[in-house]
Design a protein that fits this description.
The structure is a homotetramer of 421-residue chains.
Chain A (H helix, E strand, L loop, with lengths): L3 E6 L6 H10 L6 E7 L3 H18 L4 E5 L2 H5 L4 E4 L5 H14 L9 H25 L4 E4 L4 H11 L4 E3 L6 H10 L6 E8 L2 E9 L2 E2 L2 H9 L6 H7 L2 E2 L4 H4 L1 H10 L4 H17 L18 H13 L4 E8 L12 E9 L2 E4 L10 H20 L2 H10 L6 H15 L9
Parallel strand pairs in A: 1-2, 1-4, 2-3, 4-5, 5-6
Antiparallel strand pairs in A: 7-8, 8-9, 8-10, 11-12, 12-13
Helix pairs in contact in A: 1-2, 1-13, 4-5, 4-12, 4-16, 5-6, 5-14, 5-16, 6-14, 7-8, 14-15, 15-16
């Protein structure tokens, strides 16, 4: 390879400079020759192209930055395609948040009824990208950050032959937490990781090869702000912060209902400032407000993958991959989020030899929902949509399903061509 | 065998005559020579012994009926030991019902927090019975009807070597429904049955070998009063009536809260009349009120098992048995409720070749709860008790668990020796 | 059903009257209204039609017997289609026996290189029958007796949607042995059965529900003439008689080489007398020589299946069925020979909960061969043919494979259209 | 860690300097502070201690070298314990080679009847070492090179809690072959590896992430001298060279029978020269004859493991590890030889997602033998010894087993305390 082409789909996102920042830190390792920015929103794309030119210069990146609204051009010959799209934008996200809340259900863009609708809007677009990659960049890697990444990755792996690695910053949370709490460098922290995206559990944490002490465990666990520390200590394994929706449901629903704005509404406002800063032609720094935007750690994970693959360096990473038996109690066709060995041949799941006894049933329940939701999303099948919600531990009741389904379809109808509404 | 000894543990129960009734219907098949009634409640035992003598005579049963308060005598040399005990009586049942309800949770004697407490009270007693049988009637069969039968059977199979078959009338519900709705005799109705006790799903129903029509399916499904017919039609498989607690949770909780009495309180009152009738020495008929008592079908199932075993007749029956791979997504050590082949060698599970795609995750979630609850019950382990409730789809939230646990332990403390409270 | 149509494919076979004999014994149970005899050999078909008419009369069967050389007519509307064909006849069988023997390898019509060639000749014809049944008798059952029945059944189940049950008299051998050795009636003998056709092992034998004694085990085992009794006692499980080719290979090869005739040649001679007897219009008795022809027990098994299905009687039987997880160490797609529950819905495998520790590897090795052989047979793929022989424990060596393959293809070329030789 | 203690058990072996040589090459990475040489043969130990002192100096290793005949001292506080023992020496090896050959069976020290006897002699000694390590160096790693490494590792993992990693140079053969044939550096060569020690198959070879061409495959495969190239091309996967005993059995047996000496006899002679060279106090070079001794690559593998663990570097390596589901068709308790991720937490097997269709049955058959042999070795059980040989594809026939067993036991009786002969 003579220097790589790195394509960003949804490049108008305020997140894009984080990827450049990480490329800057890895410029000795990663000879990125071309960054291709793609978006359907020409205005944001223009702003971001300008900013990225300035930012790359500041970072000392020797790279050609280009922008396009042609998906074919964007994908053609790409070595890596990073997808960070939001179909329907934050406008639809706010609906994902508000509709379930009316029924006192969790309203949230990655799980529950809201997360499912985001999957329904996103999956057809992602399948189109993946199918084009099969032709235009058959050896390239699709690196997905678009949520719900587990469902998106399952859809792409079940329905296309594109190479896809689904990521979430959650895969390195224990490293981040151990660093923050104990000052331990990433390389010394190891752990077992079992589950799905946003539905996973971390066990057997070691520092430099030895098991953490109880005190260290507690300090690391305390970094997980979203789940009660006493609960984590009881579990003995650390749940993903997203388990808050499951273990503290009513409390979180009450908090949401009391909040003046949803997260989506907050982000919408925040983005005004952020884009204003990006558009300022004298500015070549990431806007301060960006830190409040979330997503920290993803660029690190994504570029870690690029390094492992491009430079053929054996690296353990948490990736969303087809199960095929790695997690014995889940179907072979399921996408799971587990530890993998990554190198130039791609990723291979480590076998999960020890299933934590206190949480596998919940993982199974959510995977059951996910598989039905993926099929509903691809087939545009309202019956499967209902079955998916019935299978979801945060919905489950028929009374909810009956009312939610027409409302959710109506609120998303312009983004659901597969349902022929 | 020279005529069998049939022991009833908990024989003071108002249900006992149902077993005799079924023996009467099968008297040509089953040479029951001795019925041994055992109970710790001498008064009820006395009443029931008297009634059973009269009732057996009326049924034309050529059988010796005896009563004892010695468990050893009861079990010694028994061919079959039917267990139908209620540790703590309906007094404790009412607590199982009321405590969860205070938190707007399902309060119910077979599942949820209430069902777990019933398991905690029952399992130590059942293990004692099973361990005694290992010595006193090593070739005998323990036929369990005591709820929660899935947890009881799992405890006995994991912690003893006694022969146990756990039953529930639910195994023949589709036959009962098809008969009621369509007039089809039992022998012509076949179906696949997958899941756990009170957490199971019926699929592929056939009548005389041919799949039921959509109209027939609907008529059969409509007999399941407790789950919405539209929901069943959507599922395409028939859930156990106990799925009402999962699919109609809020509705049922509201109904319970509005009810003047709990089921336990109702039964307590009902039993006054029932026992008065049993005590009447001129009476040799089952009291009319007994029909309202529930449990219909169990005696039929239990005696069907006795016939299959005693007479070595290949018979397909639904039994609670150790999984060992029969249901691929559940642990080998789990007890599952599935179709089995029964004959004199006992029962062997049919392999579940087709897992219904819309409900396996919920089954897994409940099994995860069950295994933790069984271990908590046997070990008297409060941490596992909390983990069990966290794993239970009807509880799950930490806020509930924190509050429920001390209250439940306090309310049951005289029946939980293993917890050393 | 108003009386059944029973079709025999390969009805010219001398075995046909055994089926009628069994129908005679079951005439109260089984209202066979029409027996349709089909063969491509008009002469044998004519002889057999005549004999069957006389024989049925003698047996008191109230049945219409017809003969046809039209496969479509034979299959149309059939309730049961019994297949007992021999593609290429005993002429080809003799080649199956002799060619491997030249290399000091087992030459035998059901396993080894010879058995594979029989599969290659047979499978295309069986697929044609099964495909026609999908249209002409979609609810009918194909009952296969044609060897190698495991491979034939796997081919039909993997490549068609016909209902097929593959049988072998081996499924009832332990019953036959216990009866002969100990005078125990069939109904009292139960056992676990694990493996493949002609590659299976019997364990946990019980008589009337109790485990056999060591002395009884030995007497039963001694009925298996073909495997050394000391070896069986060491194993502790009873291997199929066909395990002689595996455990006594050299001895059997030496015996074959010393024999004046192969089994196929012997049968060819025997059949002259048998058909002469059948052709004698004054004769309405099965020829005495038929007893030497082999196959005893199959008609019993086949009609036992017909009874279980037709009359919807739960019956435990050994059947060749798709594995789908019933035998955990074999692929889901494999056909296995295991205990099943049979009734009007067909057969469901019992889960094999206990894999005998001393023989599962050999079963796996032979199944690996079988799956490759089935694919070679269907696809006409010489590479897979070689891989199949390399995987076969009785061949395995490359030096054999290189030499055998061209010779076997040449010797069978007129019966292998799929290979385009 | 302040520099490591590296213990070599069986240090009198002529192989020992290879380990030092590799330490020399890795001296920047690996701060070995102490090399502890242990052997029961004082003479060889003395020679080797002297040579190692000289050799280490020449290599510029800053290390303390000590020798002991006390196993406790050797193991105490060791970070790594390398085991390379030969119980009974080459004297017994020659018997392993010659006895089976008398029956025209493969006589070989790692598989067949000979390999089993080596396992029987070795396993009790290895269990003693492992049990001592549980106490004396509980965090240390046992790195085993002693053959048959698969059986030894399975015995240690099933019967002790010591940390053991079983190795064979075979794990890097494809890298060695690709380097030799095509000049490709190790880091660029990746492949899937499935099976057992000396019973494994390599598939999906890539060079720098892209699949090898057919021509490259052929050149790499041609480096495997022991298996016919045409056969490898047919298989499409590369078998271990040890598959020669399975795919070319008769040819190899004939070759052995024709050879003037067995491999053991040859090595015995060779070692005279080798030890003379080691004993020469003026010599500080590895003797030339050592290259003919075999074992090339093992020191590289062993020190690669030490590096991955000691320095906590994610590294893909082939290791013998407990299966626990990584290879779906083998028992959980089996030790398998598969790709693993190694770092300071030890090794975790990669899940084998794609089982090669042409060879899994043979792997299963050999694993069945191995598990029976391990149990026979530990329990000293003659029945299991016979079952192991019956399960072995290279023995299998009862006639062989009956004759071999008394002869093998007699020839090894002084080394089989567990059999109480």
């Amino acid at each position: 390879m003579e220097g790589m082409k790195f394509t960003i789909v949804g490049a108008g996102s305020s997140y894009t400079p984080e990827l450049l920042d990480e490329m800057g830190m890895r410029k000795e390792q990663l000879p990125v020759k071309e960054i291709m920015l793609y978006d359907i929103d020409e205005k944001r794309l223009g702003i971001m192209e300008g900013f990225c030119q300035r930012f790359a210069k500041k970072l000392g990146l020797d790279v050609e930055i280009r922008a396009t609204t042609s998906l074919d051009k964007a994908l053609y010959g790409a070595d890596f395609v990073d997808t960070q799209i939001r179909v329907g934008g934050n406008k639809q996200r706010v609906k994902d948040e508000k509709i379930p809340l009316r029924y006192n259900l969790v309203g949230q863009e990655t799980t529950g009824a809201g997360g499912m609708m985001k999957a329904f809007r996103t999956i057809p677009v992602m399948l189109e990208i993946a199918e084009k990659m099969e032709e235009l960049s058959p050896n390239g890697w699709l690196i997905n950050y678009t949520n719900p990444t587990g469902l998106v990755t399952e859809a792409v792996t079940r329905y296309t032959n594109a190479n896809i690695a689904g990521f979430c910053s959650g895969g390195i949370f224990p490293k981040m937490w151990a660093k923050r709490a104990l000052g331990i460098p990433y390389e010394q922290v190891q752990y077992d990781y079992m589950g799905l995206n946003h539905m996973n559990f971390i066990s057997n944490i070691t520092i430099d090869g030895r098991p953490v002490t109880e005190a260290e465990f507690e300090k690391i666990a305390a970094q997980n702000d979203d789940v009660d520390l006493e609960l984590i200590k009881l579990l003995g394994v650390i749940p993903s912060p997203y388990l808050q929706w499951y273990y503290h449901t009513n409390e979180k629903v009450a908090m949401f209902k009391a909040a003046p704005k949803t997260r989506g509404e907050y982000v919408q406002e925040l983005e005004k400032d952020v884009y204003a800063a990006y558009a300022d032609e004298t500015n070549c720094e990431k806007p301060k407000a960006l830190a409040k935007r979330g997503g920290g750690g993803y660029s690190e994970v994504a570029m870690g993958f690029v390094n492992a693959v491009y430079n053929n360096v054996d690296t353990k990473m948490v990736v969303n991959v087809p199960n095929k038996g790695a997690v014995s109690f889940l179907p072979d066709s399921a996408v799971v989020e587990v530890g993998c060995l990554v190198n130039k041949t791609g990723m291979q799941p480590l076998h999960v030899t020890e299933v934590p006894s206190m949480c596998w049933g919940l993982v199974a329940a959510v995977k059951n929902y996910e598989q039905l939701a993926v099929e509903a999303a691809v087939e545009g099948d309202v019956r499967k949509m209902k079955l998916a919600l019935l299978a979801h531990p945060l919905v489950r009741q028929w009374e909810y399903v009956e009312k939610l389904v027409p409302e959710l379809l109506e609120a998303n109808k312009e983004y659901l061509p597969q349902f022929h509404l």
